[in-house]
Write a structure and sequence with these properties.
The protein starts with a helix and ends with a strand. It has one domain: Muramoyl-pentapeptide Carboxypeptidase, domain 2 (2-Layer Sandwich). The protein has helices at 3-12, 14-25, 31-51, 53-58, 61-70, 79-90, 130-142, 155-168, 173-179, 213-219; strands at residues 116-119, 124-127, 146-150, 193-197, 224-226, 242-245. It is an alpha+beta fold and 246 residues long. The structure holds zinc ion (ZN).
Amino acid sequence: MNRRIFLSTLALTPLIASNFVKESSDIYLSYQEYIALENLNKRLKRLSRFIGYANFNIVSFNDALFYGRNYSAIGSFTKEELSLVDKLFSENSKQYGFYGATTCSSLNNKISKKDVVKIPYTGHYLFKGKPLEDYEKLKKDIGDTLVLTSGVRNIVKQLSLYCNKIYNNGGNITQASVEIAPPAHSYHTISDFDVGRRGWGYKNFTADFASTQEFKKMRQLDYISMRYNKNNSYGVRFEPWHVEVI
Ligand SMILES: [Zn+2]
């Protein structure tokens, strides 16, 4: 198609034209970065299997490097993987359409086991103090059908969820950042947690959770809030399952 016919086609089909503009403004990883992402993703999964799902939630970045160096079941992080980690942790996330605050400024943030409590049968931790108190109150007010689906997440865990999203979006960082906070910006690293309805599996992480009795009861309570409302200022999708600790 020559350029003139192509442009007139665009003019006749504004929907296609607007989709084209939207897609082209999204930011993607380069091909080399995408290869590094694939390897990093696999290495983080091997680390999680090696140290266990619960430990993976709170492991520090330096400890992850140590495990990689010392255990061949994981293997050392490569130069390319480390420079990708640096980019994903340090870059200004506003360019990806994510407007949330920085919640953690150190890639090597440490979470002490003294400051958290492991919640039985969940594989997750909560910070002592208000988050733990809120969760215990929620269980009392809503009942045993309410379960903890994600608690404390240190940088390595958030990084692995973020990498997985970028991978599943074909290297599209902008789209991934709508679905999950970049690693320096998660409130799971300092306070918040996710809840769901017992037996609901992956549906607990969809907008369907807003139709449950558990969610409706939660909305009546004044000691918690919802961090990611519809059309929130963070640029994050609607997440009814994500409890804001206030
Ligand atoms: Zn969450």
